[in-house]
Design brief:
Number of helices: 14
Number of strands: 21
Shape: globular
Strand content: 15-25%
Bound molecules: flavin-adenine dinucleotide
Largest sheet: 8 strands, antiparallel
Radius of gyration: 22 Å
Helix content: 25-40%
């Protein structure tokens, strides 16, 4: 996913960096939208049609909860509430959670679950707040915000990470011991949400998904039980945590097998948009023989006037940049219009891929994804046609294609809940404001439809509301649904997926 910076500077990619700011001309040709997301089911307020408890009653209940917590409880009317309810995507700014519990420890999470059960409230965990579907804020829900759970400890190649950290913070802390994790590029994404849904990044070909490096976790289940999970303790839950999204409990600690933090060559290549099909085809050809330490993805941006720009981000071991670029461009059979090669230290690479800034402004955006088993010429054509059509009606959307090969494909599709282990790629669709949400949504829905059965599902970290569980978990969905029925029989934890 590509963080948005500003219209006048650069659009940055989460899994590859920066192309010169895409023009927004023509965006006004798209219709405006109310962009109202689905509301939650319960509101703990006397005025609510589904009010769980009356106003006077509510005050005493909140007071009682506050007294039980080590962390903070923020309810509507508190001065902190307008900010406490916000997530990264401003599209969800109209959501009014019944309260936000900023937990101080796992016991607070258990207390909040207990309160939610007593008052029949839906619960949503929040870490980095980057959920595409705005899961971590919702009208009526009790938000359990884990950002106060802090700490990154490394020992003998293992890192114990609290879920309150952003990716940048985790990279920075691990870097002090010369270690890292294969994870995403957006600096403000939460390590918790990213890991639980998979975790795709520039080290994925070499070291797998972030969830593949998870060796243990502490989880608070909806019944308030605090349990350790690992390959030998509650292996069912451990299976689900690795890619199963966040349907089963709230994680209060994660232990990872780290990787070495290394210096990289980081290369950006730009190609004419009309050659995007050749670029994608050549990229796939190159992937077949490219060493796993070499990684690249392809992005295609719509200019909103019917045109496209194509660019690639390549990351490989320091010193190999020129050779790897030559092999990649040979496979594509085109000379790039522009090439930028630089050698960067580990944290410099992190910052570069983050778009050069750790703090990113909140923005409104709409995204979706498709998983394809192979990138055939037909599929490539469909993807590019859909983006071109959107471009021709003012849509400054983009497509980013990331490979699922290398170490991602080492585990079997059933080894963890992340099911896309023998598939070629994730095609991500996205559009930022000022493109109206409804227009972007229609474009993405049309794109899914155009791909038809060539799309076998979606990536749960690029979640779209209203989809079925099976779309994100493929053959693993029944096992996940059964586990959820066992540990969360009341569906306490918020989900926007149909069973
Ligand atoms: C700008 C941007 C860039 C991105 N880049 C990448 C990328 O490079 N690679 C990639 O793979 N993905 C990427 N993503 C997708 C990202 O991985 C998901 O959106 C992820 O779910 C965000 O996690 P979060 O903690 O920030 O969000 P949140 O909204 O806080 O949480 C996301 C989900 O996890 C749940 N959750 C949060 N904390 C916990 C917890 N402690 N226990 C249990 N459940 C919890 C929430 O309830 C919610 O369902 C990007 C997203 C954005 C917006």
């Amino acid at each position: 996913m590509r963080p948005h910076f500003s219209r006048s500077v650069f659009l940055r990619s989460a899994l590859g960096l920066a192309v010169a700011g895409t023009g927004l001309a023509g965006a006004t040709r798209l219709s405006a939208s109310s962009a109202a997301p689905a509301a939650g089911s319960l509101v703990a307020d006397a005025d609510s049609p589904a009010g769980a408890f009356g106003r006077g009653n509510a005050e005493s209940k909140w007071r009682a909860l506050r007294g039980e917590l080590r962390g903070r409880l923020i309810v509507p009317g508190d001065p902190e509430y307008p900010v406490a309810r916000q997530v990264f995507n401003t599209r969800f700014d109209d959501q009014e959670p019944s309260a936000v519990v900023q937990v101080a420890d796992a016991e607070d999470v258990a207390t909040a679950f207990g309160f939610a059960a007593e008052n029949d409230l839906e619960v949503a965990a929040r870490a980095g707040g980057h959920s595409y579907a705005g899961i971590s804020t919702a009208t009526g829900s009790l938000i359990i915000d884990v950002r106060g759970l802090r700490g990154v400890r490394t020992d003998a190649g293992q890192a114990v990470v609290s879920p309150g950290h952003t990716l940048y913070e985790v990279y920075q802390e691990l870097d002090r011991s010369g270690r890292s994790l294969p994870a995403g590029a957006c600096p403000s994404v939460g390590i918790a949400g990213l890991t639980l849904g998979g975790g795709l990044g520039v080290e994925s070909r070499a070291h797998g998904l972030t969830c593949d490096r998870l060796t243990a976790a502490t989880v608070v289940l909806p019944d308030g039980t605090i349990t350790e999970v690992s390959a030998t303790v509650r292996p069912d839950l451990f299976w689900a945590l690795r890619g199963g999204g966040s349907l089963l409990g709230i994680v209060s600690s994660m232990t990872f097998d780290t990787i070495e933090a290394t210096t990289k060559d980081v290369v950006r290549l730009t190609f004419p948009g009309e050659q995007a099909d050749r670029v994608i085809t050549g990229w796939q050809e190159w992937l077949r023989s490219a060493d796993r330490e070499q990684w690249a993805n392809v992005s295609v941006d719509a200019d909103g006037e019917g045109g496209l720009t194509c660019w690639m981000q390549l990351v490989c071991p320091a010193g190999a940049g020129e050779t790897v670029t030559a092999a990649l461009t040979d496979a594509i059979g085109l000379s790039p219009a522009a090439t930028d090669v630089r050698t960067l230290g580990h944290m410099e690479t992190v910052l570069y891929l983050a778009g050069g800034a750790v703090d990113q402004p909140r923005a409104a955006f709409t995204n979706g994804s498709d998983i394809v088993s192979a990138l055939t010429p037909d599929i490539i054509g469909t993807v590019l046609e859909s983006l071109t059509r959107f471009s021709s009606v003012g849509g400054t959307g983009w497509v980013q294609i990331n490979t699922l090969d290398g170490a991602i494909a080492d585990p079997s599709p059933t080894a963890t809940a992340f099911p896309w282990r023998d598939h070629a790629a994730i095609v991500e669709w996205g559009a930022y404001e000022p493109i109206p949400h409804d227009s972007a949504l229609t474009w993405i829905a049309d794109s899914h439809a155009a791909l038809g059965p060539d799309s076998v599902g979606g990536y749960v970290n690029y979640l779209e509301s209203g989809d079925s569980l099976s779309r994100y978990f493929g053959d693993n969905h029944s096992r996940l649904a059964q586990l959820r029925a066992r540990v969360d029989p009341d569906n306490r934890i918020r989900s926007v997926l149909t069973p």
